[in-house]
Amino acid sequence: MKTLGFNAYFLYICIVQNKGNIQEETITISAATYHSLLKENESYKLQIAQINYQLAQLKRMVFGSKSERFMPEEDKSQLKLDFWETIEKKPVEEKQIEEVTYKRKKKSKGKKAVRVPLPSHLPREKYILEPTDKKDGDQKIGETVTEILEYQEAKLYVKSYHRPKYVTPNKDGVKVAELPSLPIPRGNAGPGLLAFLSISKFIDHLPFYRQRQILKRYGLDIAESTINDWFSATCRLLEPLYDKLHYSVLDTDYLMADETPISVLTAAKPGSTHKGYHWVYYSPLNKLVYFDYRRGRGRDGPEEILRNYNGTLQTDGYIAYDSFGKKANMILLACMAHARRKFEHGLENDPERAGYVLKQMQALYKIERTAREEQMSFADRKALRQKESAPILNELHNYLKTQLREVLPKSTMGKAIAYTLNLWPRLERYVEDGRYEIDNNLIENSIRPVALGRKNYLFAGSHEGAHRAAMIYSFVGSCKMNNIDPSLWLKDVLSRISDHKANKLDELLPPNWQPSE
Q1: Looking at the structure, do residues 402 and 511 belong to the same domain, yes or no?
Q2: If you write DSSP's letter for every residue of 290-302 in order, what string do you get?
Q3: Closest to 262 (Cα-Cα) out of 275, 251, 253, 249
Q4: What does the pLDDT look like over 317-335, one tens digit per residue?
Q5: CA torsion 292→296→300→305, rounded to 10°?
Q6: Angle between helices 412-422 and 31-62 (to 10 degrees)
């Protein structure tokens, strides 16, 4: 027997193959070594769990669905197929054959599918097709109408303003009509074309070089630098309205905030890109969204924007927002969707705990869906939450506090529980006011076009370009919130804003906008 220490004994069976004979060897180690091995074993377990989590997330990114929908294992509303369990539990019995006769009604042929009529607002071209064998004496008794939806490519055309010049009888002056206000002074691009270029890039995600190829097919070859100059001039024209949007978004006592990255080309980083950020602020009550570009993710951006803001701010758990909770004139709300995402990622590592939490959160969202479908008032929604959501939140809070002591702090589940408990006062606060939302998914919907745009135009050409992108995303997002066609809005605003009074710019914001005749 080999002795490795004297403080404690640990039995270790060593199986040794020695000329066909199996021998047992007992090794004694010290207590310090034993506890060191236990600690090392726990460390390896944690490393394996983290590697498995990273591998699962990588597989999900490459092969899997990004949906966060959770389906509990036992859903009473779904049919349960227990075919294999039945086979295992019950032996197959041989059944006697018997002849059964019955009568039933003959099934009628199914009804033909009803085609949805084409929208009535679309222009129609009427074609009359007469039978080839029609004779003069035939009498018309009706007609059959068949409508076919067709598409015609967009076309470019030139507006040519002819302004005759007149001289007075006494020849003391020349009279000529004034040229209508143009979006770009001394430019030759109309509001419709400028709106088309901006909307195509920031909604349809077509970079300007692709749009140039499209214009070439129409027989027009425009340099990409010219298109960029047009876009810059468009944004300069919209800058006062963008500032007005900024103040209108903050003119509320309930605001959502989030941020999303954008790559930017700069001279300071040749051969690579700078990582800037769009900070997004959304007013659910005013239905306005404001994008603010910043060169970094530091707290100086939101602190400058929200310096004079008084009210409730709903965000995720990013630390840059924590300082606002210390202000007496501000209340912080958290996002339940971000907390739910943490547990959804932990399903593979700890399905029992993660499944329970997700099921409770699913019940909370079901209550919100009921309030939305029944179009409840803010007061009624608050009463519903106090009655049904509050007990679920209390139960979930107690469960998380209990489980925090049972999981490894650095495990996926440990991090999810710690994140949720750290934000719990902000997470449950939404039940106190019917105007509040359970999460800030509304603002994430506004950010989604930015993520799609990154995959197409990849980066902004400069910090100024990123600022201009923030401007267009603000207007486009606000139009979306108010169910307004952004192309129609932008074309109309570009044709009017030059002559519009500065003290009435709020009339052009999407919630207040009325199209000109």
Answers
A1: no
A2: EEEEESS-STHHH
A3: 275
A4: 888 898 888 888 899 999 9
A5: 0
A6: 80
Host H or E run for residue 396? helix 390-403
CA distance 514 to 517: 9
Tokens 């927002």, located at residue: 321
Which helix (H) or strand (E) element contains residue 26? strand 21-28
Residue of 301, 290, 291, 329 lying closest to 313 (CA atoms): 329
Among left, alpha and beta (phi > 0; psi -120 to 50; other), residue 125 is: beta
Which of 307, 340, 342 lies closest to 323 in space, CA to CA? Answer: 307
- The reply to whether 346 and 252 lie within a common domain is no
> 477 with 500: CB under 8 angstroms?
no
Kind plus residue range of the DSSP H or E element containing 370:
helix 351-373
What pLDDT digit, counting tens, does each position of 294-323 carry? 999 888 999 999 988 999 999 998 888 988
Nearest C-alpha neighbor of 145 from the set 122, 127, 123? 127
Helix (H, G, I), strand (E, B) or coil at 331: strand
Residue 194 sits in the same domain as residue 319: yes
Number of domains in the chain: 3
